[in-house]
Write a structure and sequence with these properties.
alpha/beta; Rossmann fold; 5-stranded parallel beta sheet; 19 helices; globular
Length: 465
């Protein structure tokens, strides 16, 4: 892993792997639920030597009898075949599994606690057992790689599991033992199919050798491979599932509103889904600053109002604008955290290259800062008070009547004034003038092109990291 940058690999051979001359790996899989059972059977069918491990003796016996402990498409025949050929067996003995493998996949459950927090009890217990077993077999030599496939929040592996592993092994993770996080993207009902045709393979590697071991497991499968820092891999699974839930909730809420208004929601969504430029695309899916403008806020308000008039509850849609406002408030809080009073703001219009100030989040930000008594200077090369006309001028006179005294003619004028600079534009003249190191605190609202380098500087604060 170089500098925490995502490394992606394209062009893996399509279809199931036939290892042949490829290296056969000895793999132990801890937890024989849906994820563990499918992972074990599929890896065995690829030619690896796999041993499944579970505390439930019934599951162990079922696997050794060539039967699946879960109901899932294709899994029954697959397990029967790989057990018959000797590629897969199961045990309840952790030490036996560790001694007979070089890579361990941890696939135990991480259920919710009653308060919604993540239960890591099973993860901790298995990690401790693996560490003890590795310590007992240290004389055998060879580096073992522990791969966490269970879903867990960012920081769980490095802050909780790695210390448990190191304590029990008596060694250093990334040196004496390999550690990686390899989230699964298997859908129940089609998990075998998904294993052999994954949307992506994500490997959070503690060190390159750990990542190499996981990469070798899946050699021959199609799709793109992303080798990323461990916390990034942990977060990706949550990003996926949260977005999937959001999509379903959005579609259902919109469907309910359409039904109440006498509109065929499936016709609406057919056209919606046909838009691959803005709707089903990467558009709008990069963290940044709040949205605004003359369309999005207005139309969201109208849709939510129509739903309420029709007695249709739309909690997702109703909370989009409050969520947007909360994100804007985070920028205010970053300024407050500096303890400084002279503030510069680069950018004012709601979209670069325009002078449209209507419902611009930068105008709202300026209004909040000015209202809190900050000494504010603003520069936007596209905004001149003398050129503002009609609704645009009326809006700014209502929201920020002191704009004339806040506007600065140049980038340098803002930099000379400010102890804190908020950057909400990608204007090349602004970006090239921003200082490094000594100078004003930089509050990055857009993720600057050199954000990675600036993150190491004490005077840089990013809203869009």
């Amino acid at each position: 892993m170089r500098g925490g940058v995502v490394q992606s690999t394209h062009g893996r051979r399509a279809g199931r792997a036939c290892l042949g001359e490829e290296r056969v790996m000895r793999v132990s899989v801890f937890g024989l639920g849906y994820v563990g059972c499918v992972s074990a059977a599929c890896l065995a069918s690829m030619g690896h030597e796999v041993i499944g491990v579970d505390v439930n003796q019934v599951k162990v016996d079922l696997v050794n009898d060539g039967k699946a402990p879960v109901v899932e498409e294709r899994i029954g025949g697959l397990i029967a075949e790989v057990v018959r050929t000797g590629a897969l067996r199961a045990t309840g003995d952790v030490r036996e599994a560790i001694m007979d493998s070089e890579v361990s996949l941890v696939c135990v459950g991480t259920p919710s606690e009653p308060n919604g927090s993540l239960c890591t009890t099973y993860l901790e217990r298995v990690t401790e057992q693996i560490g003890v077993a590795l310590a007992e077999g240290a004389e055998q030599g060879g580096r073992h790689t522990v791969v966490f496939r269970s879903t867990m929040l960012p920081g769980t592996c490095l802050n909780l599991l790695v210390p448990i592993l190191e304590k029990n092994v008596g060694g250093t993770a990334g040196v004496d033992i390999g550690v990686a996080v390899n989230p699964e993207f298997l859908r129940e009902g089609t998990s075998v199919r998904d294993f052999f045709d994954p949307p992506k393979t994500v490997i959070g590697e503690l060190d390159p050798a750990s990542g190499d071991a996981v990469t070798a497991l899946y050699d021959g499968l199609p799709g793109e491979v992303f080798r990323v820092p461990v916390p990034t891999a942990e977060a990706i699974k949550y990003a996926d599932n949260a977005f999937h839930g959001l999509k379903i909730g959005f579609a259902n809420e919109l469907g309910a509103v359409c039904q109440a208004l006498g509109v065929d929601s499936h016709q609406v969504m057919d056209v919606f889904l046909a838009d691959r430029k803005l709707n089903i695309s990467p558009a709008y899916l990069r963290p940044g600053f709040a949205f605004g403008g003359s369309c999005l806020p207005k139309d969201l308000r109208s849709l939510v109002h129509a739903a309420r008039r029709a007695d249709v509850s739309v909690p997702i849609l109703a909370h989009v604008l409050p969520s947007n406002s909360d994100h804007l408030q985070r920028a205010v809080e970053l300024v407050e955290r500096t303890g400084k009073r002279r503030v510069g703001l680069f950018g004012l219009s709601f979209k670069p290259g325009t002078d449209d100030l209507r419902e611009s989040p930068l105008v709202e930000l300026a209004e909040r800062l000015f209202g809190k008594g900050y000494d504010l200077k603003i520069h936007d090369a596209n905004v001149s008070l003398s050129r503002l006309l009609g609704a645009n001028r009326e809006y700014i006179e209502t929201r920020l009547p002191h704009l004339a005294q806040l506007l600065a003619d140049s980038v340098d004028e803002v930099l000379e004034h400010a102890e804190v600079c908020l950057v909400g534009t990608r204007d090349p003249a602004v970006l090239s003038a921003l200082p490094h190191g000594d100078g004003p605190v930089i509050v990055d609202l857009i993720r600057l092109p050199d954000a990675e380098a600036r993150r190491a500087e004490p005077g840089y604060m990013g809203l869009a990291w």
